[in-house]
Amino acid sequence: MNIGLVGYGRMGRLIHTMAEQRGHRITLIVDPNAPDAHEPCITPALLSRVEGIIEFSLPEGLEHTMRVYSQGSPKVVLGTTGWDEDREKILSLWDVASQKGALLYGSNFSVGANLLFRLGAIAAKMTAALPEYDLMIHEYHHKHKKDSPSGTALTLAQQVLNNNPRKTSIVSNALTNRAIDTQELHVSSTRGGAIPGTHTLSLDSDADTLSLTHTARNREGFALGSILGLEWLADKTGIFRTDEFFTTLFKEQEK
Fold it and tell me: Dihedral sign, CA of 191, 192, 194, 200?
């Protein structure tokens, strides 16, 4: 597949290497800040160079790239995070795209992190009738990460809310002047160092503690997931979430 990369930071360069190892060709690189980038910004004319696009860039430019994609019919894997508040607006731009286009988006393309989402959902459901166990989430990321809490932490939190009726809302700010309410799920964050990402769901009682943790050693899991996602999109049209893709992937592994 001829692939374009929008965003050529550490993730983009890793995807470049891993995609070529899987037999793909990188025929377009778009990044205004990369000295070896081919193009400073994506334009409709550039879409003819590629069959698929993987984007890991800053959320500030997402509205522009989505408007460009809507003028063609590319297969797009969107790994950019930090745009959840504008999701409805951003996705509405895709509605005018050709019926031949396909979009796959989500907060985390790591295979391991998506296993955590599913295990977290099971744990939340199993403890729904056990008020002795309280649930909480904490995540660590490197000092350069701009969004807090991360999209991954919020996705994990939503799995808890969807499967445990005792938790009905997410609190991500510091609790400096009050205790947490029973129905609140506290999602806390730490930023520092070079940590690729660590997310932990804890289930705590007077008797014991159970923790489910995903620790990324590097970005390879995210890069591989995005490439697998683009391969999955090859014969599809429409808008898809990462949970749909990974559900299919995990079921195939069970065969």
Answer: negative
* 147, 141 contact by CB (below 8 A): no
DSSP 58: -
Residues of the chain where predicted confidence (pLDDT) is lower than 70 = 95-99, 252-255
* Domain 2-109+219-254 -> CATH class: alpha beta
Mean pLDDT for the chain overall: 92
Strands 198-204 and 134-141, by their bridges, are antiparallel
Domain positions in the chain: 2-109+219-254, 111-215
- What homologous superfamily does CATH list for 111-215? Dihydrodipicolinate Reductase; domain 2 (3.30.360.10)
pTM of structure: 0.80
pLDDT of amino acid 96:
55
Contact status, residue 227 vs residue 22, Cβ threshold 8 Å? yes
Buried b (16+ CB within 10 A) or exposed e, 71-95: ebebbbbbbbbbbeeeeeebeebbe
Q: Active-site positions?
A: 141, 145
State the DSSP H helix or E strand holding residue 225, giving kind and residue range, or none if neither: helix 220-233
